[in-house]
């Protein structure tokens, strides 16, 4: 065995030890060395520093170092050589990197029904470029300074006009705030609400799981409230003791339910009665294929509702452009929170988007995309009916995803695994439940072609029949 690469000089092994920690020093040393070996930072056959030298270097007794080395030898990370020196075991070096590479070799599924991807290949580059040009030619220097936390007046005006026209909101530019997607808008909002004394957030069950974590990090308690075919179960909301609720009323994620007029009225009555707040995540309302979308709840009760919108489904998630319509009482705190967080969203992007909307390009883009997504949805639903008729889609014809329940003889884990073996990505409902619920699948189709959708469902049918054989 070669002893050519050495690492024996004092100060060569950087391991951070926390003497105030309750974890014993030999364990801290072990895990420091183990991590470096796994990450490939200590490579195969590297000779470890002599125990006495390392002990002096780190201010430890030699016994602590000996104990750590012995443990790592026992685990197979180090090899003890005759001659009294210790080397990094070749089999262990860089295993994390190898695991990652192996994962990448396996690669992403050939056809992937992962949700949340719109077709970014259709991004309206030419029209966006025209707006960039105009904006760069016309933007006065003063607009390039730090701005109001709510964002540029131009975008707030364009968006307020657009949303009032298309979504039936009651937005005034001064009540709007531009943020980096729903992710930032909802995080800041939940932080501001927690600071203002709100305590318990009700979320739809099932729903987007990331939000619950954000709520808990903000100091709120998150509770699940069931979703019915007519939207959130407002009687269960009443019992939940929540003082704020998050709803995807126009197209519930992931079930696809639409809140009925009665549910929307009951939500507003609940908020009024308890002085509570409704957060309306209107993430994909622009895509409704069989009839006009229902108007936003915000338009019915602007002082009870925070409306949240995003360009992530309509244009591209990478734009990181989102917006909130706020009740008057939250405007100042939210504007301050946005300034504290990042000093405001990038001005050029906001001004470009403002011009893009004002020129009618946003409407044009949506008119072009709607029939494309509708064809994809029809292909998906049609092929499911032919090939796997017991996976019945639920929810309205809208958005960029479809959900089905799974028959009782199929588990999500088995179906997703059998699909992956065929190069197909399908995804279960499990992560979206607050309180565990029945199995289901959520299919995102936004970024696929029609033939991929059809082939994907054929692969799924094959996967399911293999499980049933
Ligand atoms: C329910 C829901 N709301 C909002 C969003 C948009 O988030 P963002 O604007 O941060 O991209 C998503 C994205 O997938 C979503 O699933």
From TrEMBL:
Membrane-crossing segments per the record: none
SMART domains: HTH_GNTR
Any GO molecular function: pyridoxal phosphate binding
Keyword DNA-binding: yes
Entries under Gene3D superfamilies matching the protein: Type I PLP-dependent aspartate aminotransferase-like (Major domain), Winged helix-like DNA-binding domain superfamily/Winged helix DNA-binding domain
CDD domains in alphabetical order: AAT_like, WHTH_GntR
Keywords in alphabetical order: Aminotransferase, DNA-binding, Pyridoxal phosphate, Transcription, Transcription regulation, Transferase
Keyword flag Transferase: yes
Coiled-coil annotated residue ranges, if any: none
Sequence ranges assigned to domain HTH gntR-type in this UniProt record: 23-91
Family to which the UniProt record says this protein belongs: In the C-terminal section; belongs to the class-I pyridoxal-phosphate-dependent aminotransferase family.
Annotated PANTHER family: HTH-TYPE TRANSCRIPTIONAL REGULATORY PROTEIN GABR
Name of the protein this chain belongs to: PLP-dependent aminotransferase family protein
